[in-house]
Amino acid sequence: MASERVLFLHSKNSFMKIIGTGSALPSLAVTNDMLSEILDTSHEWIATRTGISQRRIISHESLVELGVSACKKALENAKLEAKDIDFLICSNTVNNYVTPALSCIIQGELGANCPCIDLNSACSGFVYALDMAAAYLDARKAKNILIVCAEEPSKIVDWSARDTSILFGDGAAATVVTQGKKLKSIHLSTTCAVEPLYYQRKLEFNPYNKKEEFKPLVMNGKDIYKMAVNASVQDISKVMKEAKVTQKEISFYLLHQANVRIMETIREYLGEKEEKFPKNIHKYGNTSSATIPILLDEMNRGGQLKDGDLLVMSAFGAGFSTGACVLEW
Ligand code: UT7
């Protein structure tokens, strides 16, 4: 039986601000029409049910290369160098290495020399990483923190399953945060619910134990859909209440890009305008924890954000874990 526990809720203008963003996507764009050549599906079905037209899939490049490239762009945007970073947090669900952590490999390639840690909160990872960074900054344990969300869900989906493989894409995005009173509120929650979405890694055979069964990614799309809408609507109202802000004051809602219908339903519940919900899911699909920071980077570089804009971010994913925050740009 699943039960909700609020893990962390703090506000009072937490000691954090975003000073740089960057992103990197694989070069190969896999269109819905390309998928319909290998699966019993169609562009029409995928586009109407999900809002996705294409996704980027890692072919010749590596996840490390994408992560490093996103970090370099974010550092440049923040006008910092790798040596200025005091802590590196990498949000990642799966990659080639079980150990060392992906953050260590990215740190080495970047030429940084700070402590590193990997965090796995599935698609909510970016908000969890912001929360962790805020705690380090609040405690004065770091001045500049680099968060990189590097994800390759294409390596865990079953490419013969049309209900899951069509949804995901690979990508990386990085964000540099430093001290500054811009984070207005943040809320994380985790409800243990494994069945709706899980993937078990294939491990070495242990001669003292029975052979483990292996299944590709398992997802109950309908359950995830409902959980996502309910959680996001609740999380958004909690963080806005905590930050003492009204809907009128919010410039943009950056939602986890999982399904355009999920985002539309959340928007309708909130009774908000369409233009306040930027989307890029049609181009990239669901890149797990990288969706929000990729979107943020596109908006930053596209000149869509101005000083003082209030942003709501809300993410949800396997766990079932969710996170939301209000922050000022
Ligand atoms: O970060 C979180 C990750 N997960 C998610 O965000 C998933 C959230 N859920 C969803 O996005 C939706 O539930 C899906 C897009 C996965 C599915 O949409 P749906 O409207 O819930 O469709 P459904 O599962 O009810 O399937 C309807 C029909 C079924 O056929 P029958 O049983 O009615 O004959 C499916 O077999 O659509 C069929 N179907 C497809 N048909 C063509 C499922 N996938 C496909 C496909 N192409 N790719």
Features:
single chain; 329 residues; alpha+beta; five-stranded mixed β-sheet; binds oxa(dethia)-CoA
Structure in a nutshell:
The chain is an alpha+beta fold and 329 residues long. It has helices at 32-36, 43-50, 63-78, 102-110, 125-138, 221-243, 260-270, 281-284, 291-301, and strands spanning 4-10, 17-24, 28-31, 54-57, 87-91, 116-119, 144-151, 171-178, 183-193, 197-198, 218-219, 250-255, 310-317, 319-328. Residues 41, 45-46, 49-50, 123, 162-163, 166, 219, 221-222, 224-225, 258-259, 286, 317 line the site of oxa(dethia)-CoA.
- The spatial strand order of the largest sheet comes to 1-9-14-13-12
Sequence of secondary-structure elements: EEEHHEHEHEHEEEEEHEHHHEE
Broad structural category: alpha+beta
Largest sheet: 5 strands, mixed
Q: Indicate the low-confidence ranges by residue numbers.
A: none
Task: Count every helix, treating DSSP H or I runs of 4 or more residues as helices.
Answer: 9
Strand % is 25-35%
User: How many individual β-strands?
Assistant: 14
Percentage of residues in helical conformation: 25-40%
Bound molecules: oxa(dethia)-CoA
Separation, N- and C-terminal Cα atoms: 39 Å
Shape: globular
- What do the pLDDT scores average to? 93
Using only C-alpha atoms, the radius of gyration works out to: 19 Å
